[in-house]
Amino acid sequence: MAKRTRGVSEFEFVQIENWRKKYEEGKSISLNKEDETNNNEVKCIEEEKKENENENIENEKIENNTDNKTEEISSNESQNTKEAGEEEDKPKNHFINVLITVSGWNTTVDNNDFFLPWSVLPENVYGDHYCLQWESKELKELGNAINIIASELFGIGMKQLLGATILPVIAAMSLPIWMMKLNYTVDNPWGIGLSKAQKTGLVLADTLIGNYQENRPVTLIGYSLGARVIYYCLRELAEKNMYGIVEDVFIIGTPVMESKKDWEQCCSVVSGRFVNGYITHDWVLGFLYRASSGSFSTVAGLAPIPVDRIENICLDEIVNGHLDYR
């Protein structure tokens, strides 16, 4: 399913079972590559037809007879392949729950990062599992920027400097020239990523309101910008009074700075658990907010969300940094 609304150019659900089959077989999961292959096949068929038309009448008759037989066989094979493909696309089991996972950035050309981080989840625990593939180009650029940040900060020992508590240290930093240059490299993909995540969240809300999940309760899990997508999805559902759609929510490393009232509004459309995972020494997320906004006192990925309804879990002893979320 693809949507191109609200300024979002890529939005598609892919069932992880289907992706896992293709991944294990070494096949590409990129729809663009599949479209290019199909177009090339169509062009080859058209060229062959033109060549056949230029041949003499006798050869045409012979070839047409052969082509007719071949087309009948191909048609039968195509029909069988289509039916087999339809059976393959259908989930093995149709559960009463739906799990939607949202990744926060991408580092691979073939978009496997949309699925690999979630392949470790036990199958069918939360029902039919779908991964959201969204804005792969922008997320790839953001992934490159995050890697640059990590390597630069680690290279000067910044990780050790920020190991204890990131908030007061970064707040007091006066940026040297090299870090100002790093800001210039990072600001653009980070700012675009924040904007795209917000818009994608609105499209996700529209999709759930449109009953893509077939009246089944939905569990949402996301990290980094994927968690931001979920936040704006919940905001949109709340503003439209769409209750009873989302059951559980799990967000970690969330790059969102909003008021207690806004978070309470999000909680109103979640019927089950609402869990926020954070780490106080997330030096990458702290630097990104230091570079883009100069403030992070209420960043959900760095501190607890002050809402009783939300379960805040500190991951300091489990997660070393933002890069470990995927």
UniProtKB/TrEMBL annotation:
Q: Which family does it belong to?
A: Belongs to the TMCO4 family.
Q: Which UniProt keywords apply?
A: Membrane, Transmembrane, Transmembrane helix
Matching InterPro entries:
AB_hydrolase_fold, DUF726
**What is the protein's name according to its record?**
DUF726-domain-containing protein
- Major site of localization recorded for this protein: membrane
Annotated membrane topology is: Multi-pass membrane protein
Q: Where does the UniProt annotation place the signal sequence?
A: none
| Basic and acidic residues composition bias: residue spans | 25-36, 43-72
Where is this gene product found? Answer: Membrane
Q: Which GO terms describe its cellular component?
A: membrane
> What residue spans carry the region label Disordered?
25-90
Which Pfam family, any one, appears in the UniProt record? Answer: DUF726
